[in-house]
Amino acid sequence: MRIAVLSDIHANREALEAVLEVVEELAPDQIVVLGDLVGYGPDPEFALETVARLVSDGALCVLGNHDEAARSDRDRLTPNAREAIRWTRTRLNEDHRAFLATLPLSITRFGCQWVHASAYRPESWDYVADPEAAMRCLAASTEPLICCGHTHRPTVFYSHPNRRPTMFVPRDEIAAPLLARHRHVIVTGAVGQPRDGNPAACFALLDLEEASVTMRRVPYDSEATAAKIKMLGLSSWLGLRLLIGR
């Protein structure tokens, strides 16, 4: 079974369209979206409506922290993110809000737990960015595999019983093995706002039969997205970081 895993779309239409074109060519058995459909970017309506169609066709989707902020009055965000999410709220209609209200914090399916941030207190939006956080994440789940996003940096953590997890940064487009007698946390990178120094959109292709995960990179017109952000009067940093992948 092959699963395309998308996370952190962040209202980036150009990135999402480019990624979905590649996903369509790959024809995976399943699509999973790990939240943060909105926030930062200029096209929240498109992101929500596109993912809602994917879900109606059988995709799985969980809630991200920016999605939670968009559907509520909670603003536990950085100043730039807060500005963007307040603007995002003005763009959402009742259908958008109703779709966000259906999204769970976590889904367990296919021998994997799917969650935006961490299996450990998912409502707290912790980052799985180091072995200690990966250990907490693994301890909170009984599944052999956990897939999450939130950090915007593709990473794989390997956990052998009774040992500290090992952190591995996989190379783009090269399959990283999932090891026997290990548990794993896969952090999938970001479709709409990569932060690993590579501005190309990132998604993960998980192959359960081959026991591997590949971080796929998809170039897109980030300058067009950045220009939209500037035109809307949002922070220029939100556009600049798309160009540099930070």
UniProtKB/TrEMBL annotation:
Database matches in SUPFAM superfamilies: Metallo-dependent phosphatases
GO MF annotations, alphabetized: phosphatase activity
Gene3D superfamilies xrefs: 3.60.21.10
Domain of life, source organism: Bacteria
Record InterPro entries: Ap4A_hydrolase, Calcineurin-like_PHP_lpxH, Metallo-depent_PP-like, Pesterase_MJ0912
UniProt GO cellular component terms: cytoplasm
Residues of the Calcineurin-like phosphoesterase domain: 1-210
Protein family per UniProt: Belongs to the metallophosphoesterase superfamily. YfcE family.
Name under which the protein is recorded: Putative phosphodiesterase
